[in-house]
């Protein structure tokens, strides 16, 4: 993945670097690694008024602390976001996007644009889970269960 400063550009563009991953316009997704005490500022592209971050290792401080394992949603707007790594440094993902043009309906396992689509999708997930419990794990032609790492 291309880098721009301490950020790997996973999706979209950032600071002159562009991800090789094809994705819809209007979203940026970065993997950032900061050393202990290091500060970094992200300036979202024009129109990106939604932003979030999730910390995998270490901790961050900004307008509020974000601990390892936590996710933060930033106030809507397009302002720059400044984050500082704690004493152990920080590894985190940060994303920004243009707002979705449709209302979102959030479920336990999925997100849809209508309540009916959510109910149908969640119902289908329940059906598949029940079928898998009855049938047991899928097996390959050799009889082994595939393992993904």
Structure description:
The protein has about 150 residues and is mostly beta strands. It is about 15% helix and about 40% strand. The protein has one helix and twelve strands, in the order ββββββββββββα. The chain has one helix at about 115-135; strands at about 5, 5-10, 15, 15-20, 25-35, 40, 50-60, 65, 70-75, 80-95, 105, 110. The model has no long low-confidence stretch (mean pLDDT about 90).
Quick structural summary:
The protein is mainly β.
Which key phrases capture this entry?
149 residues, mainly beta, eight-stranded antiparallel beta sheet, two-stranded antiparallel ribbon, 1 helix, 12 strands, 14% helix, globular
pLDDT average, as an integer? 89
Rg over CA atoms: 19 Å
Beginning-to-end CA distance, first to last residue: 20 Å
Structural class: mainly beta
- Number of helices in the DSSP assignment: 1
Sheet having the most strands: 8 strands, antiparallel
Please indicate the percent range of residues in DSSP E strands (runs of 2 or more).
35-45%
Unreliable residue stretches: none
Level of helix content?
Answer: 10-25%
Shape: globular
Q: In sequence order, what are the helices and strands, one letter per element?
A: EEEEEEEEEEEEH
Give the total of beta strands. Answer: 12
Fold topology:
Elements: E1 3-4, E2 7-11, E3 13-14, E4 17-18, E5 27-34, E6 39-42, E7 50-61, E8 66-67, E9 71-73, E10 81-97, E11 105-106, E12 111-112, H1 115-135
Antiparallel strand pairs: 1-2, 2-5, 3-4, 5-10, 6-10, 7-8, 7-9, 7-10, 11-12
């Amino acid at each position: 993945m291309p880098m721009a400063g301490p950020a790997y550009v996973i999706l979209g563009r950032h600071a002159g670097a562009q991800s090789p991953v094809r994705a819809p316009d209007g979203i940026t997704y970065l993997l950032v690694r900061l050393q202990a005490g290091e500060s970094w500022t992200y300036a979202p592209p024009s129109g990106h008024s939604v932003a979030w971050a999730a910390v995998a290792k270490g901790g961050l401080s900004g307008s509020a602390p974000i601990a390892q394992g936590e996710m933060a949603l930033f106030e809507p707007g397009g302002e720059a976001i400044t984050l500082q790594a704690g004493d152990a440094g920080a590894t985190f993902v940060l994303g920004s996007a243009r707002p979705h043009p449709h209302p979102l309906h959030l479920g336990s396992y999925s997100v849809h644009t209508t309540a009916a689509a959510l109910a149908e999708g969640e119902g289908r997930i329940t059906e598949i889970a029940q079928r898998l419990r009855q049938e047991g794990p899928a097996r390959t032609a050799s009889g082994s269960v595939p393992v993904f790492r």
